[in-house]
């Protein structure tokens, strides 16, 4: 069937049928003014015949006696390839072709200027793995790929293997991989609906919209001419039904990303030795047979001519100008172009990051309003006034030997800063952020459904994943029959899997215990410096010992966090490899979960200590609880502990985002600068030509000198954003400016990642995906945890509940129906401080009475220093608030999740109608094809549905 179709295509070009219009936009389109090397003829030229009289140089891959590759005359050696065609001929070097054949010298084509480079393999000529490489490349040719070798211009030891997939090979594997291709123009469900229902109303709306100013965040259509919708129905490609598909140009029918994905599929399944597990480019990269394997970029990302006047040179140039430049930070992302160039998996990451950034705008605005409310009411706050005016209120000393009592008014600034974050808007903002997290996730599901529809991923099911080479090598002796494919495959026994899982879990708990040990060390440090600062000779430090203690503790904790992160990545990598996951997705999910657990505990353990344990077990004067009977436990400021939590979050979140952004951009820039420096010096220790102008290098040499994408893929990118999401939601009641910091960071992060992908990294293999994977479940877990933690922060850490109880039970307004908050809090500070008789201490020469923060009976009471009734009222109110808050917020979250469907209704209707129309179109197209075949053959043509 395939042969007959090919013959038909050679004899006569395809024409669109009368009943169906051709798809105007192919799956791979180019800007209007792309260079001429992207334009290729409709049908590929026949292969040029090799003149045997001309002395041609070929590269023999067979091992020589000295273990190195040699260039020899074809008449003198017998090549190790089974066939010698134009793909194995080593002709004129690329450096000599410049000025003669622009397409060949651009580095995107073979030397003939016609065959497009779909993949690049890099190896060292000094590598001893010559036999494996020879067998692998011979098998690649047997699979239908075409290879051509080229030496590096910057390093004499580096050799590039250019890989091209011809049309027949692309069709063969596109059918095997069930790649969906366009075959008819879409007829939208809303086309007939808009003509009959309220057309005048829609016309008026469009007129009013045209009068409004244009949205500056949108990209101009003239700037992105190739982002027109591919309004075509798609179906899994089939060579038997090739007449169904709209093939205007064979060279552009399969996009560059699709061609690279097909070649990668072949590379992963080609053997290099005899044996069941001796296959795949991953294993060859692991044993240093090849140094790298990557699809090439589509050219340079910069041009001497402005893009507005001369157009874009290629998609990479277009992405740089309309996405990766810092000057367009406020523009929407060209997601369709990102998806076409980098694949759906990376496109979904940037779509999710853009959606998350956009959803942070209302959260940041509300957080700023809450902060401004605290700022404007800071001076008028009754609690702050009472603290600042308490010149005669003597507070108990912070330590027993060298410290002296201090007056409450000394902490006036501390109390005012506390009011910025601990005010009446705290509860409202915590409820808002809990609902915001639910709305964010629910609307992302809808956005993801729209993207999967637009990107033709609705009916895409991930093919049976290949086994990891490490798994095959470990369990090659134990086999079982795969229930899906019916073929034998390596099998991991349950006992071995359980034992490895137990070791991995033990390693995780050990690392978490290491984190807790580090937190304990920071707590001890805070206790030591608290006494030192409280008895400091410098009056400024002595007066602001709370700030000094918290600030130094946070800085030490931040350095420990960043140091342990380096260790965690290596440990997570070792533990994941120890488990021997079966597939790459299982490995990535396991590694991502470990990294999240490690870094989440590392970042938030000290924050949880400050939020829920700081000052809870300090004791009272005369009977303080001490650590190791030496250091007295730290207690909260009379105005509350929330300012310590706020300081902890602000410092870690601010400095961590700066450090991450610096490392993401700084490290690749330094590495690439070092590579360019070595090139200018003459090959970087490997010899090579002295290339003064980088533009002289072909594209494969330029890409080789770029940095590879992270070995963990998008795990690091998602992990950074998910941890930030946790900071933004879990303790947001203590730090309302967290969404604003996250928003500013993400605006930078989008362009930084875009710049990194386009300019600093080699082009990653375009992979497909329908969602963000395990990270969605982690985000939902963080949303649930955020409700619980914010309830405890408001009830336990902040002073909202004690003030609430005082207002309605003990304050001057307890029997009044209408009252003002500040008036009802008069006397609150005095009510929240207990009295201690300092004469009970030995060798005490201080004033007789001092105050401390607690609800205890005075020393002259019948039960001195026992908890008062107000303490139990506050405790009951805190527990009641936690229960009411959690049930209320969880109820609202569940109701919102129920109201918001995962897929828009109009999208569901459109998908159902298109499925119906697609079946009819395929049936009509098949009938039309059979009628043409019958007329052509002059007889009745019986043919079943293929």
UniProtKB/TrEMBL annotation:
Pfam families: Anoct_dimer, Anoctamin
GO cellular component terms, semicolon-separated: plasma membrane
GO MF term list: chloride channel activity; protein dimerization activity
Location of the Anoctamin transmembrane domain: 338-914
Subcellular location: Cell membrane; Membrane
Membrane topology annotation: Multi-pass membrane protein
Membrane-traversing stretches: 349-376, 426-444, 501-525, 545-568, 596-619, 722-744, 772-796, 875-900
The Anoctamin dimerisation domain, residue ranges: 109-335
Keywords carried by this UniProt record: Cell membrane, Glycoprotein, Membrane, Transmembrane, Transmembrane helix
Family from the record: Belongs to the anoctamin family.
PANTHER family from the UniProt entry: ANOCTAMIN, ANOCTAMIN-3
Record-given protein name: Anoctamin
Organism: Seriola dumerili (Greater amberjack)
């Amino acid at each position: 069937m395939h042969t007959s179709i090919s013959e038909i295509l050679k004899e006569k070009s395809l024409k669109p049928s009368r009943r169906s219009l051709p798809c105007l936009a192919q799956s791979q389109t180019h800007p209007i003014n792309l260079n001429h090397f992207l334009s290729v003829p409709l049908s590929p030229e026949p292969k040029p015949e090799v003149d045997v009289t001309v002395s041609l140089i070929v590269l023999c891959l067979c091992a020589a006696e000295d273990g190195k590759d040699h260039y020899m005359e074809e008449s003198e050696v017998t090549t190790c390839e089974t066939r010698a065609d134009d793909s194995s001929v080593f002709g004129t070097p690329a450096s000599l072709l410049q000025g003669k054949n622009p397409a060949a010298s651009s580095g995107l084509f073979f030397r003939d200027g016609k065959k497009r480079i779909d993949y690049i393999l890099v190896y060292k000529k000094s590598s001893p793995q010559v036999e494996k490489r020879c067998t692998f490349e011979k098998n690649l040719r047997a699979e239908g790929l075409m290879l051509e070798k080229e030496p590096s211009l910057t390093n004499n030891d580096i050799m590039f293997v250019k890989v091209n997939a011809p049309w027949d090979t692309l069709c063969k594997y596109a059918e095997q991989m069930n790649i969906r291709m366009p075959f008819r123009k879409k007829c939208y469900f809303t086309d007939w609906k808009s003509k009959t229902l309220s057309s005048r109303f829609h016309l008026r709306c469009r007129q009013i919209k045209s009068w409004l100013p244009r949205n500056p965040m949108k990209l101009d259509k003239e700037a992105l001419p190739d982002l027109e919708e591919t309004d075509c129905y798609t179906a899994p490609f089939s060579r038997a039904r090739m007449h169904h598909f709209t093939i205007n140009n064979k060279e552009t029918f399969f996009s560059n990303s699709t061609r690279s994905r097909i070649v990668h599929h072949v590379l992963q399944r080609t053997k290099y030795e005899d044996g069941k597990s001796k296959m795949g480019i991953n294993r060859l990269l692991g044993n240093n047979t090849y140094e790298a394997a990557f699809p090439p970029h589509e050219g340079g990302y910069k041009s001497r001519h402005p893009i507005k006047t001369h157009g874009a040179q290629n998609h990479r140039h277009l992405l740089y100008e309309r996405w990766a430049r810092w000057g367009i930070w406020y523009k929407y992302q060209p997601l369709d172009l990102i998806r076409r160039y980098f694949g759906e998996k990376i496109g979904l990451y940037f779509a999710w990051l853009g959606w998350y950034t956009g959803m942070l705008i209302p959260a940041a605005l509300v957080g700023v309003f809450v902060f401004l409310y605290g700022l404007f009411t800071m001076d008028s706050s009754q609690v702050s006034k009472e603290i600042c005016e308490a010149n005669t209120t003597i507070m108990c000393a912070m330590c027993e030997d060298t410290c002296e009592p201090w007056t409450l008014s000394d902490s006036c600034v501390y109390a005012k800063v506390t009011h910025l974050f601990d005010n009446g808007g705290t509860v409202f903002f915590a409820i808002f952020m809990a609902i915001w997290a639910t709305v964010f996730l629910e609307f992302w599901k809808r956005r993801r459904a729209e993207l999967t529809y637009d990107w033709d991923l609705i009916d895409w099911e991930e093919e049976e994943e290949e086994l990891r080479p490490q798994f095959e090598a470990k369990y090659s002796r134990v086999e079982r029959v795969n229930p899906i494919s019916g073929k034998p495959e390596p099998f991991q026994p349950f006992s071995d899997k359980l034992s490895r899982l137990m070791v991995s879990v033990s390693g995780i708990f050990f690392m978490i215990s290491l984190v807790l040990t580090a937190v304990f060390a920071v707590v001890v440090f805070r206790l030591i410096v608290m006494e030192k600062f409280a008895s400091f000779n410098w009056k400024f430090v002595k007066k602001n010992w709370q700030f000094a203690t918290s600030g130094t503790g946070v800085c030490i904790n931040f350095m420990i966090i960043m140091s342990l992160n380096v260790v965690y990545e290596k440990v997570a990598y070792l533990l994941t490899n120890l488990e021997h996951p079966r597939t790459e997705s299982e490995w990535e999910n396991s590694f991502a979960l470990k990294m999240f657990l490690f870094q989440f505990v590392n970042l938030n353990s000290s924050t949880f200590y400050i939020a829920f344990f700081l000052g809870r077990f300090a004791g009272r004067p005369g009977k303080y609880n001490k650590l190791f009977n030496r250091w007295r436990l730290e207690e909260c400021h009379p105005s509350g502990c929330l300012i310590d939590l706020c300081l902890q979050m602000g410092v870690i979140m601010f400095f961590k985002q700066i450090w991450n952004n610096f490392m993401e951009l700084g490290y690749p820039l330094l590495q690439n600068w070092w590579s360019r420096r070595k090139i200018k010096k003459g090959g970087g220790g490997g010899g090579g030509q002295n290339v003064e102008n980088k533009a002289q290098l072909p594209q494969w040499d330029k890409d080789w000198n770029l940095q590879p994408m992270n070995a963990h893929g998008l795990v690091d990118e998602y992990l950074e954003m998910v941890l930030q999401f946790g900071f933004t939601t879990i303790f947001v009641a203590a730090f309302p400016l967290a969404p604003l910091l996250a928003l500013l960071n993400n605006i930078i992060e989008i362009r930084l990642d875009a710049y990194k992908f386009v300019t600093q990294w080699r082009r990653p293999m375009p992979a497909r995906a329908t969602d963000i994977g395990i990270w969605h479940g982690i985000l939902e877990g963080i949303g649930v945890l955020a409700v619980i933690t914010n309830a405890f922060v408001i009830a336990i850490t902040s002073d909202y509940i004690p003030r609430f109880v005082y207002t309605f039970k003990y304050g001057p307004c307890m029997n009044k129906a209408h009252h003002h908050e500040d008036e009802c809090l008069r006397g609150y500070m005095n009510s929240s401080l207990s009295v201690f008789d300092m004469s009970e201490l030995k060798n005490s020469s201080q004033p007789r009475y001092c105050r401390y923060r607690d609800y205890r009976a005075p020393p002259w009471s019948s039960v001195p220093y026992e908890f008062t009734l107000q303490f139990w009222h506050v405790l009951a109110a805190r527990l009641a608030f936690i229960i009411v808050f959690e049930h209320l917020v969880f109820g609202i979250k569940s109701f919102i999740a129920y109201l918001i469907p995962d897929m828009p209704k109009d999208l569901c209707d459109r998908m159902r109608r298109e499925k119906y129309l697609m079946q009819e179109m395929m049936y009509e197209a098949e009938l039309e094809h059979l009628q043409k075949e019958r007329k052509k053959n002059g007889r009745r043509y019986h043919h079943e549905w293929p």
